[in-house]
Amino acid sequence: xxxxxxxxxAVLKYEKLFLPPAPFRSPSQPANNRLVTLSLYDxxxxxxxxxxxxxxxxxxxxxxxxxxxxxxxxxxxxxxxLTQGFHSxxxxxxxxxxxxxxxxxxxxxxxxxxxxxxxxxxxxxxxFPRFRERFTQQITSRPFDWVITLGGTNDIAMGCRVDDTFxxxxxxxxxxxxxxxxxxxxxxxxxxGNLPHVDAKRKDLNARILGFKAENYHTFDLHGKIPYRSxxxxxxxxxxxxxxxxxxEGYEWMGNHIADALVPFIVGDAAKLEEEEEHxxxxxxGYVVVRRDDLD
Length: 296
Known about the structure:
Elements: H1 3-18, E1 35-39, E2 52-58, E3 72-79, H2 81-84, E4 86-87, E5 92-93, H3 96-107, E6 113-120, H4 129-139, E7 146-150, H5 153-158, H6 162-178, E8 182-186, H7 196-211, E9 217-220, H8 222-225, H9 233-239, H10 248-278, E10 286-291
Parallel strand pairs: 3-6, 3-7, 7-8, 8-9
Antiparallel strand pairs: 1-2, 2-10, 4-5
């Protein structure tokens, strides 16, 4: 058998043994070509009867139909009642993550799954140990790609020191970053109360949130996007529930603003993934060992 025939036989045998059958496609669909090269060892260097050859499979990822799930995007939304979606004296629950998930599904590449976990506890104080313990439990339960944090409203209401609140927020951000998550930290929204010392604390905390710097740490000034005092009475009736919590429509409003901040990052990640799939040099190469006898 000639060398060319041996190579062809090896490729066919490899495809039969190791590759899944090609999915059905109509004549109008382009073929998903397999790129396989064969490298024969020099027989003078490997005189053994069962000397081997190596079939080098390139562009393995190109064999996977694009309709199959390639990735799962996991996001943790963590905070207090504003993350939970508390409204109607606790009788209703409409987390912003619902609208955020809807927006993300509209732009995610085909086949990408979305897992959104919402962990919001009414009355939780960021400066208290329970806040950090709950975050640690969540972040270590499974890998997340993104963590969205919102905390500090209850701290300000209870008179906690801004230093303590910010130190606690820093600790959960750093834990998330150490686990290779990307963080989107939200600033604390205003409330109906118009007290100078409360406003000063909120302004101080928000400035620290926006001023913190770390790789893969990002911020979004939610305070500037969901105001209370600058709205007229009609707008407040639509978006706000009790002056501290939002209405069902208000949490949808909030979710849209957060989506506006997060979507550009997700789109950029998807574009990068697509670029890697289109360039074989970015794809890991696999090797399959075939016995010499299999070539004959």
